[in-house]
Amino acid sequence: MLKVLSVGSEIYPLVKTGGLADVMGALPGALAPEGVAMRALVPGYPAVMAALAGAETVLSIADLFGGPALVVAGEPDGLPIFALDAPHLFARPGNPYLASNGADWPDNAQRFAALCRAGVLIAQGAIAGFVPDVVHAHDWQAGLLPAYLHYAGGGGPPCVMTVHNLAYQGQFPADLLGALGLPASAYAVDGVEYYGSIGFLKAGLQFADAITTVSPRYAVEIATPEGGMGLDGLIRARAGVMHGILNGLDTIAWNPARDPLLVAPFGPGDLSPRATNKSALQARMGLDARPDALLFGVVSRLAGQKGIDLIIEALPLLTALGAQLAVLGSGEPALEAGLRAAMARWPGSVAAVIGFEERLSHLIQGGADAILVPSRFEPCGLTQLAAQHYGAIPVVSLVGGLVDTVIDANPAALGAGVATGIQFGPVTTNGLADGLRRTAALFADQPRWQQMQTNAMTLDVSWTHPAKHYATLYHALVLE
């Protein structure tokens, strides 16, 4: 059994701000059938430590960036994890990265360097019962791990670095170099230096033995000046170790046939219960009870990246088409205000819940006719995977993993009976408007629409194939 240590800053269901948590939580179970025993190392936030109450201490660290720390091991809900119990760094309420005023914690560099340091100790065999064959670091928070191993003189296991979102890079002042335990020689173009600062993600990309992104299309996009966000040169230089591996969907947590959060569970053999969920969604959101209206759903961070401003700008057309919109999410204040204003302008047709409710997110997927995902860039995206699995037709922009996961309803795909959604481009208000018109035309042809729903629901969006790709990569690294 190959042993892999997965290191990241959040893990579902214990702590989550985005798709990283879903991947961290899903991979151990998905990899077990492939002969891979994965254990995750995560910070000991309050929610994590509460889930590990009474867990076994497997490692003590006398001083870790200003205080003692422990590594504890447990399996809450069957999820094998190590938690870095360092109260001086992680015993803080709320968001893992932000203080109550919305600003980054001022010691985030030390907090996540500590996570990497603990990962190095485990990688080097500090826990006798778990000596990993491979280390898998996720996003900037784990980016220093490959660098620490490199500057320790090598000898550790090979490292995989996964980029979940290149927009978040972890940049910190150069004068922290010594405080982070990095040698002076590390501050170089071929080290951790990045535009006059220390780049955590840059360090991971520089020193990892293999790099992965969460979709093949995104792997191509980040190697371009337009999508590389300043790192495209390094990414092109390391093209030989780059792999685009699609994310999967947790089809146990997201199973419309057995979902307790739906009013009426259903499967691809009988879509009629979706009408009950649609009615419940309209009632929950304060939308007019119109069974025949085309109901668009959105479950998203309210951010420019996600194209929420395009949705707001397209609302005159959407409502003129006789459609409705149900939004769940929170984020940029201007977008939240824009949605509130839209609710006032189009009562009964536009509704938004600012915040997040797990039950409502499932009801939107199980009750909306279509899900809007007009992202300006999207490394992979999970919303469109859940939408297809729940028979909500995804309407997506032509970027990243959205291209890789949705089969566009173009004439050829419709003729072959394989379409699962609608793609549009460019990512502008006019581009989205074309997507909305196409969606309305297809919705008016219910036999064809229901065929698309069935296609989408029977598409394999699980972790089965991605897990095989990861297992193959791990084994190849061990054999090198």
From TrEMBL:
One of its GO terms (cellular component) is cytosol. It catalyses: [(1->4)-alpha-D-glucosyl](n) + ADP-alpha-D-glucose = [(1->4)-alpha-D-glucosyl](n+1) + ADP + H(+). It is an enzyme of class 2 (transferase). SUPFAM superfamilies: UDP-Glycosyltransferase/glycogen phosphorylase (SSF53756). One of its GO terms (biological process) is glycogen biosynthetic process. ADP-alpha-D-glucose binds at K16. The keyword Transferase applies. Coiled coil: none annotated. InterPro entries: Glyco_trans_1 (IPR001296), GS/SS (IPR011835), Starch_synth_cat_dom (IPR013534). Pfam families: Glyco_transf_5, Glycos_transf_1. Residues 292-414 form the Glycosyl transferase family domain. Keywords: Glycogen biosynthesis, Glycosyltransferase, Transferase. Its EC number is 2.4.1.21. Synthesizes alpha-1,4-glucan chains using ADP-glucose. PANTHER family: ALPHA AMYLASE DOMAIN-CONTAINING PROTEIN, GRANULE-BOUND STARCH SYNTHASE 1, CHLOROPLASTIC/AMYLOPLASTIC. This is Glycogen synthase. It comes from Acidiphilium rubrum.
